Amino acid sequence: MKVGLMVTGIGVPKGREQNVSGHVQLPMHTATLLREAGVEVRLITTCFREDYVLPKVVPGPAVVPLHFVTDGRRRGEVGKQNIKAGYYPLAMVKHLREILRLTRDLKLDMLHLFGADRMTLLAGLLNMLGSSCPVISTAYKPPHPGIWAPLYRKSKAIACSTQFVANKCASVGGKAQLVRPGITRDFRTELNGCEPGERKRVLFWREGTYEQGCDLVLTAFDALAPQYPELSFDLALRENRFEVPGVQALCEKHENVSVFRFPYPDEISLARLIAESLCVVLPFRKLTIQPQLAIAESLKAGVATICTELGSCSELVLHEKTGLVVPAEDDTALTSAIKELIEDAEGTLRMGQEAERDIEARWNWNKYTEELLKLYDKTSS
């Protein structure tokens, strides 16, 4: 079988080759797994800016050939979220034609698109336009129905990483199937043999935005830092133009509150910060991908994690077993949850150990490969 895996927007600025978006991690690792299973794989992506480069996770062209098509979308700069981003009709027509030509010229048996709901719509559209092979998608987000609902139904299959997304896709008539991947990033490996210090941190990591719940974290840290001077309340932040105000002011107010900004100083790494954390706090208001990989990666690292009752988050964090699930938008509940984990440090460490075991058992690459191959066989037949 010859399969094309397509994901858009994989280019990154120089210096960010290791800082890979979740929407890119899965198809790249899928390419490696399928090749190991004897499948002939081709990667397809969109052209990117001349000053951008491929991330480290992309297999070399000698391993998996890489093909480029015109991007039908103008994308904002990574980390900047340029407001000029958007779709262009003529470029989109060219985008569609080039994909259809590639599927024909490469004689693909299956084209598998990875991305948000737009890629599921694209899969349906390509099937409607007479693709020479079946087109399926992996959906990272639930669909936006309405006038687009018929396109969801035209995707030959929709592989969903969470039950939440699968249920939403099925509700609009999509051929949804739960296919849980493993978790690509392993923070323990990234320690490179370095011995971390004692678990004395409470950590928030991601962008410091309203959507990520950074303002809720600041409120909670402001209340808890004076009560627990022996702990460090830390934020590890990537650059974002919409960062909430007050981060630096809080660090100046409390000696045990610190912010680490990517790219981190030589003596600091995200892997080390997480390894030294009693718990991780991720009170998202909006999920950029489902499952939200920051939550999954923290759990895989063996750290109890606090998340919100949002989308598929509770599929990752098992409440009171591997972490705590709190209402979104509730800084009081978040503060209480952090305090609960601090007060029972031994129990929190046991939660972290259970989190690692649970993620390995339920989010497993071997099962993922088996289920994906079954889906390909079912769809192609």
TrEMBL record:
- Enzyme Commission numbers on file: 2.4.1.250
Coiled-coil ranges per UniProt: none
- Keyword Transferase annotated: yes
User: What Gene3D superfamilies does the database record attribute to this sequence?
Assistant: Glycogen Phosphorylase B
Give UniProt keywords alphabetically: Glycosyltransferase, Transferase
Q: Name one GO molecular function term.
A: D-inositol-3-phosphate glycosyltransferase activity
Which top class of enzyme applies to this chain?
A: transferase
Q: Does the keyword Transferase apply?
A: yes
Which protein are we looking at?
D-inositol-3-phosphate glycosyltransferase
Lineage of producing organism: Bacteria, Pseudomonadati, Planctomycetota, Planctomycetia, Pirellulales
